[in-house]
């Protein structure tokens, strides 16, 4: 029999540091203000601090503390450890092979792969499952050489001692998340390189063992998703093969395989056929195992551990400990003596901030409902103590927890009858506008736009003056009057610049917004915002999600003063700018005590009111951004219909009251429109802008094939780069669009907002964009004569 997995644990912990120490250390290194040695010292300090902290919170058993620190990203860590770099990073691979893992040279090489250099593009960046974290996408080809080159994890395991459990992305997930390297033959699948990557894993595990690790964790979240092009049976067979192979060595650490981000009971059965010592399941986004499964596992997992991810790694709400404890005791009873039951988090805690105790500005009652990473560790430790010592041992914690949940349930802001009545009264009709042809005619009349109209996505450069004014106002150093005056003068500047450039539909520039979601969260009731609640988005980038805790209302109009002012300055159409319900939810921590469809409708209704007020202020074009609509797409395709029903429904509730002559735009950031083209069609916006320039308009065939009949603005300027595309380049992209679609459907705009760009490149590019659009109009009017 193996040693039981520690009864209390967590799958992973935030890596950025309570004060974002890692972010600042990275950025200093990148800007040559700190040496590689200094960066490595900060990293080691962070590892030690978190290990001490976790041990003081009660994770004291060998293997109970995850060692998942990463300088940039956990997937990149493996790319570097295995030398599985694409051809263009051959020099970096050489450096990784020649130098110590955390040496300044190795760190610099790793960051070059992560961030690109000159015309060598970085590895792609994409969402980690349905979270807001982004990982770097490995590029694997038939010739990629997997060779263990060393990893920071090893030295860390050595210095931190047996308490820590090194965490690795498992081989199945690693390969499923990879894309085929450039030049790979048609039909090549990185997944087929499993037998080549396993020896590299074995070499790494060997070193971890030598460093003293008693447990190693393999994260296999890919198993909970069915969105792979590879049949399930094949994936499960590979899973069986991988962990049988990895378990071959007699002298090895014990293994925990984690099935986080959803449920995958079939994968548990497969893993039970391999020698792994512990299996983790997610009972939060996944589900609690049924009795029948438990009785099966009581046999198949005999002598091993089932680790229950009962504490959410995704949200910031205190768990219902009473309910979780009851379920845990059921699991324990059904599994019987032979299987050890442990408590953990559903996913790594990398998606939540460090410590809610620091949010001293929050209303204490609301704060008492919240659990950030450290509070979640305590919850896990508490439940584990209950499991080992009996319910009486945690009686006080259970009753305190029940009191907190009760206070939340009873809070008047959590259930507002006036709001519930409104959402209950919503009819299907509220989600429908007049038929599109009717709207189109009304809008053509109202707006009188030329063919191939030009516009932007909303934000203009956020200069340091703007940021300073906002910060000074927040600190109370700039009066509201002076702040409003400063913003208005910026709006005027943005309007005049657009008039001068010759754009058709203008925007106010969004200078007053710190962030497209937080801005609305600060103005709606039902939200709070935090001061220290940062979570890593990717690399050194962090976001500070707002917390949606109560029923949502809009005490007063939010954007009307700014957009109305902008409209008053010009004869051009000005586009009002709102963030859609799904994106507000995707980029906040959302309450889970009521269905998301109810939250979506509450947001839909307040945005609907905002749209009406904008119309009344003379704003005839209104954009409702939904860049996140694809992010929340469930990992299981069976859940997709329900998701699309409420997400599309809430957007349509927001926009469904708009007059026919009001042109409703929406914007989505990404380019793989193909996966959501149907949902976008159902949004029923008049104009949809998408990112398209980097992929050279690869989205067009999907749009054309779908028979999308409304207007579309495929981006012609990659705003992620400061480069100024020429008129010819933009013309080329426009003609691709007008070739693939009916030219009357096409708008000309950048890929996304311009807030991260400077004024110089913005003006230069927009001039080129306008010129290219004018040329295209000219060409089509002469050719049609
Ligand atoms: N309107 C927003 C902007 O221009 C849209 C940003 C986004 O799509 N992420 O900044
Ligand atoms: Zn965008």
UniProtKB/TrEMBL annotation:
<feature type="binding site">
    <location>
        <position position="752"/>
    </location>
    <ligand>
        <name>Zn(2+)</name>
    </ligand>
</feature>
<keyword id="KW-0486">Methionine biosynthesis</keyword>
<comment type="function">
    <text>Catalyzes the transfer of a methyl group from 5-methyltetrahydrofolate to homocysteine resulting in methionine formation.</text>
</comment>
<feature type="binding site">
    <location>
        <position position="132"/>
    </location>
    <ligand>
        <name>5-methyltetrahydropteroyltri-L-glutamate</name>
    </ligand>
</feature>
<comment type="pathway">
    <text>Amino-acid biosynthesis; L-methionine biosynthesis via de novo pathway; L-methionine from L-homocysteine (MetE route): step 1/1.</text>
</comment>
<keyword id="KW-0479">Metal-binding</keyword>
<dbReference type="InterPro" id="IPR006276">
    <property type="entry name" value="Cobalamin-indep_Met_synthase"/>
</dbReference>
<feature type="binding site">
    <location>
        <position position="669"/>
    </location>
    <ligand>
        <name>Zn(2+)</name>
    </ligand>
</feature>
<feature type="binding site">
    <location>
        <begin position="541"/>
        <end position="542"/>
    </location>
    <ligand>
        <name>5-methyltetrahydropteroyltri-L-glutamate</name>
    </ligand>
</feature>
<feature type="binding site">
    <location>
        <position position="625"/>
    </location>
    <ligand>
        <name>L-methionine</name>
    </ligand>
</feature>
<dbReference type="GO" id="GO:0032259">
    <property type="term" value="P:methylation"/>
</dbReference>
<dbReference type="InterPro" id="IPR002629">
    <property type="entry name" value="Met_Synth_C/arc"/>
</dbReference>
<keyword id="KW-0028">Amino-acid biosynthesis</keyword>
<feature type="binding site">
    <location>
        <begin position="457"/>
        <end position="459"/>
    </location>
    <ligand>
        <name>L-homocysteine</name>
    </ligand>
</feature>
<feature type="domain" description="Cobalamin-independent methionine synthase MetE C-terminal/archaeal">
    <location>
        <begin position="452"/>
        <end position="774"/>
    </location>
</feature>
<dbReference type="GO" id="GO:0008270">
    <property type="term" value="F:zinc ion binding"/>
</dbReference>
<comment type="similarity">
    <text>Belongs to the vitamin-B12 independent methionine synthase family.</text>
</comment>
<dbReference type="InterPro" id="IPR038071">
    <property type="entry name" value="UROD/MetE-like_sf"/>
</dbReference>
<dbReference type="GO" id="GO:0003871">
    <property type="term" value="F:5-methyltetrahydropteroyltriglutamate-homocysteine S-methyltransferase activity"/>
</dbReference>
<dbReference type="GO" id="GO:0009086">
    <property type="term" value="P:methionine biosynthetic process"/>
</dbReference>
<feature type="binding site">
    <location>
        <position position="691"/>
    </location>
    <ligand>
        <name>Zn(2+)</name>
    </ligand>
</feature>
<keyword id="KW-0808">Transferase</keyword>
<feature type="binding site">
    <location>
        <begin position="457"/>
        <end position="459"/>
    </location>
    <ligand>
        <name>L-methionine</name>
    </ligand>
</feature>
<keyword id="KW-0862">Zinc</keyword>
<dbReference type="Pfam" id="PF08267">
    <property type="entry name" value="Meth_synt_1"/>
</dbReference>
<feature type="binding site">
    <location>
        <position position="587"/>
    </location>
    <ligand>
        <name>5-methyltetrahydropteroyltri-L-glutamate</name>
    </ligand>
</feature>
<keyword id="KW-0677">Repeat</keyword>
<feature type="active site" description="Proton donor">
    <location>
        <position position="720"/>
    </location>
</feature>
<feature type="binding site">
    <location>
        <position position="625"/>
    </location>
    <ligand>
        <name>L-homocysteine</name>
    </ligand>
</feature>
<feature type="binding site">
    <location>
        <position position="23"/>
    </location>
    <ligand>
        <name>5-methyltetrahydropteroyltri-L-glutamate</name>
    </ligand>
</feature>
<feature type="binding site">
    <location>
        <position position="510"/>
    </location>
    <ligand>
        <name>L-methionine</name>
    </ligand>
</feature>
<keyword id="KW-0489">Methyltransferase</keyword>
<feature type="domain" description="Cobalamin-independent methionine synthase MetE N-terminal">
    <location>
        <begin position="8"/>
        <end position="334"/>
    </location>
</feature>
<dbReference type="Pfam" id="PF01717">
    <property type="entry name" value="Meth_synt_2"/>
</dbReference>
<protein>
    <recommendedName>
        <fullName>5-methyltetrahydropteroyltriglutamate--homocysteine S-methyltransferase</fullName>
        <ecNumber>2.1.1.14</ecNumber>
    </recommendedName>
</protein>
<feature type="binding site">
    <location>
        <position position="667"/>
    </location>
    <ligand>
        <name>Zn(2+)</name>
    </ligand>
</feature>
<dbReference type="InterPro" id="IPR013215">
    <property type="entry name" value="Cbl-indep_Met_Synth_N"/>
</dbReference>
């Amino acid at each position: 029999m193996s040693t039981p997995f520690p009864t209390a644990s967590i799958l992973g912990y935030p890596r950025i540091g309570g004060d974002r120490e890692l972010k600042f250390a990275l950025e200093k290194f990148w800007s040559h203000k700190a040496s590689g040695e200094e960066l490595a010292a900060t990293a080691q300090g962070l590892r030690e601090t978190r290990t001490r902290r976790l041990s003081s919170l009660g994770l004291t058993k060998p293997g109970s503390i995850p060692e998942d620190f990463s300088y940039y990203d956990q997937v990149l860590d493996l790319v570097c450890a295995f030398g599985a770099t694409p051809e263009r990073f051959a020099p970096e691979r050489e450096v990784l092979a020649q130098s110590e893992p955390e040496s300044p040279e190795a760190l610099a090489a790793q960051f070059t792969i992560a961030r690109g250099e000159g015309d060598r593009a970085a590895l792609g960046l994409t969402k980690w499952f349905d979270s807001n974290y982004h990982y770097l996408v490995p590029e694997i080809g038939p010739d990629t050489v997997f060779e263990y080159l060393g990893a920071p994890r090893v030295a860390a395991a050595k210095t931190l001692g047996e308490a820590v459990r090194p965490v690795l992305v498992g081989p199945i997930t690693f390969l499923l998340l990879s894309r085929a390297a450039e030049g790979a033959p048609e039909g090549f699948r990185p997944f087929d390189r499993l037998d080549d990557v396993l020896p590299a894993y074995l070499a790494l595990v060997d070193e971890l063992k030598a460093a003293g690790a008693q447990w190693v964790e393999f994260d296999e979240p890919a198993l909970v998703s069915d969105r792979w092009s590879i049949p399930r049976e094949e994936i499960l067979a590979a899973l069986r093969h991988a962990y049988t192979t990895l378990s071959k060595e007699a002298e090895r650490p014990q293994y925990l395989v984690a099935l986080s981000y959803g449920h995958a009971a079939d994968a548990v059965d497969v893993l039970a056929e391999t020698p792994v010592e512990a299996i983790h399941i997610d009972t939060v986004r996944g589900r609690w195992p049924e009795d029948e499964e438990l009785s099966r596992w009581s046999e198949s997992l005999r002598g091993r551990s089932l680790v229950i991810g009962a504490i959410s790694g995704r949200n910031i709400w205190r768990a219902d400990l009473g309910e979780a404890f009851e379920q845990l005791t059921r699991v324990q009873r059904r599994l019987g003596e032979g299987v050890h039951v442990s408590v953990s988090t559903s996913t790594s805690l990398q998606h939540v901030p460090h410590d809610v105790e620091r949010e001293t500005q929050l209303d204490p009652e609301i704060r008492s409902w919240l659990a950030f990473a450290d509070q979640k560790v305590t919850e896990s430790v508490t439940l584990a103590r209950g499991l080992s010592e009996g319910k009486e041992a945690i009686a006080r914690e259970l009753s305190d927890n029940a009191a907190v949940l009760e206070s939340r349930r009873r809070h008047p802001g959590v259930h507002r009858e006036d709001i519930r009545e409104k959402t209950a009264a919503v009819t299907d009709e509220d989600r429908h506008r007049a038929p599109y042809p009717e709207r189109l005619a009304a809008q053509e009349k109202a707006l009188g736009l030329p063919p191939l109209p030009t516009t932007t996505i909303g934000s203009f450069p956020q200069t340091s003056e703007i940021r300073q004014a906002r910060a000074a106002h927040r600190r109370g150093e700039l009066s509201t009057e002076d702040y409003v005056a400063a913003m208005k003068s910026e709006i005027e500047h943005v309007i005049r610049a657009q008039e001068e450039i010759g754009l058709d539909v203008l925007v106010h520039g969004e200078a007053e917004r710190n962030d497209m979601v937080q801005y609305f969260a600060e103005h709606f009731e039902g939200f709070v915002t935090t001061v220290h609640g940062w979570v890593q988005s990717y690399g050194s980038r962090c976001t500070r999600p707002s917390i949606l805790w109560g029923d949502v209302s809009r005490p007063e109009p939010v954007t009307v003063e700014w957009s109305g002012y902008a409209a008053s300055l010009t004869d051009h159409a000005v586009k009002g700018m709102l963030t859609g319900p799904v994106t507000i939810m995707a980029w906040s921590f959302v309450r889970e005590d009521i269905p998301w469809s109810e939250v979506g409708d509450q947001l839909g209704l307040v945005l609907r009111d905002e749209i009406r007020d904008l119309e009344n202020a003379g704003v005839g074009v209104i954009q409702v951004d939904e860049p996140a609509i694809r992010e929340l797409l469930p990992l299981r395709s069976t859940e997709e219909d329900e998701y699309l029903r409420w997400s599309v429904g809430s957007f349509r509730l927001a926009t469904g009251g708009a007059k026919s002559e009001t042109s409703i735009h929406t914007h989505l950031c990404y380019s793989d429109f193909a996966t959501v083209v149907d949902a976008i069609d159902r949004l029923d916006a008049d104009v949809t802008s998408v990112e398209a320039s980097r992929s050279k308009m690869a989205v067009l065939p999907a749009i054309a094939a779908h028979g999308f009949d409304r207007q579309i603005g495929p981006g012609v300027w990659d705003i992620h780069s400061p480069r100024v595309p020429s008129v010819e380049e933009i013309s080329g992209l426009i003609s691709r669009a007008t070739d693939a679609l009916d030219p009357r459907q096409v708008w000309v705009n950048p890929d996304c907002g311009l807030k991260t760009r400077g004024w110089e490149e913005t003006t230069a590019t927009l001039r080129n964009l306008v010129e290219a659009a004018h040329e295209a109009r000219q060409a089509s009017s002469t050719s049609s004569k």
